[in-house]
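Sanity check

After download, print the first record. It should look like this:
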Amino acid sequence: MIGNDQVRFCEHCNLHVTNLSNFTRREALRLVARSQGRLCVRYLERPSGRVLTKGVPEKLHRIGRRVSRIAAGAFTATLSLSSAAAQSTSQESGAPRAQALIARKIPQPELGRSLSGLITDPHGAVVSGANVTLTNVQTAVAYVYTTGDDGAFEFLVSDVGRYKLGVDAQGFAEKEIRGLDLKPDDNRAVNVELELPEITAQVEVKAGSTVMQSVMGAVAFVEPADPLVKAAFKNDLEGVKQLLFVTTDINAIDSQANANAIDYAVQHGNREMVQVLLSAGADVNARNRDARTSLMYLGNHASTDLVRDLLAAGGDVNVRDDYGETPLMKAAAWLSFPVLKELIDAGARIDAKDDHGGTVLMNAAENEDVRMLRLLIGAGIDPNAKDEKEETALTIAARSGKLDRVKALLDGGADIESKTSEGKTALMFAAGNDNPEVARALIAAGAEVNTKDRDGKTPLIIASDEGDLETVQALISAGARINDRDDVGWSALMYAASTRDEESVKVLLNAGADVAMKNKEGKTALSLARENEHKEVVKLLEARGAPE
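Expected structure tokens:
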């Protein structure tokens, strides 16, 4: 991050910008969620170097919904800062020279043992400002490092032994990696991919302002400059009609809003305005700087009649934007079932993939209307298509806890044992995200309960580590092997004991968990519970005669 109190600019955001006000509120939240937590604040800066902040109309729209895997803390803070700037009186001021904001780095002693790596987000971008803590689990000595712009960390430590690595970064779920053994003259590399929390976000957006959001998540509030585009943006039909007499280019893409008049008319679902603009020569296939056309601006208010108007005017149902997405892919993500059906009936390709291998079915797996999945499956879509991470629609639905979507996909032929590039199945995602209902449904459908991922973890180990008692019980009832161990020698009981999950420990013990089993460090469940000061778990294990 470089900048000052007036202007901040994230160098990762130096890509083309998407105008968030072109979207419905539902689409806006989804697009922000796709930024994956990489959010920064950017205000408008003129070529002269002066900063411009603009006032906006006062009406508030409050958006409240469950946001899946969105860094709401970072997003809300960003919008709060942007809103504060947007509400101030319009002013221009000189921008002081930008200064680099350097992350704090804690010096470490120069010794022979080292642990280093990169902190990245789910898309592989480095995460700066992450607090990384390396703790010796025997001595409790901790080393702390804050990542800089390169997302890298490095520890030089004094003691050999067993360590755990914790990572805490704003907007991401905390992550902990256990079982790191450092030996004399050991130099190890461990890269950590952070995940996003599943939380409820409440966001306030100023009506009449344009929220710009780049591919990487920068946001700013602006307003269209072109009079015709501004009138369409404000849903002012009479204003649009009057300005058509004087406009020189009805298809002009506004320099600030990155949209034209018909894009906004479509977004508002204003069929009469769309018809007026089409009659005056608006090009339904005109592209903005992201290569989006008006069919990609269909919003919650879109009617099938409006869709038919755009198609009759020559709208291309298979056009792709700069991210490889088509109108059908966007419709599957956040629009209504009738609109999706209209596009399919018009010849939209159901087998389209975006630049990351995402499919129409994957988007529909996160939509609230399960009929979309059934329609697409009935139309012959491949239920087992994979993206670049080898995810399928089923793994996405299972991770999100969408029970009705999971059932629809299974009924449609989804491969219940399909694995991602990390070796995870749908059951593992359900077990790792506290979704016992989904886990039970997958087990009932025949999911293999003893399969292992790339790290040797079984669904039972994952559920025990998560502290998901209901899923632990369901897996045991389905025949999960109690004493399987992962690649570092940890069993389900060890994970439950180390995470203070007293109830899961009881269930595992009653199911025959081996209390004498040791991991690759030579530690038992009891020693792990004692190291983590889980007194009640220690009592349980001692009562069963567990050794140290």
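If your output differs, re-run the checksum step. Summary of this record's structure: The radius of gyration is 27 Å.
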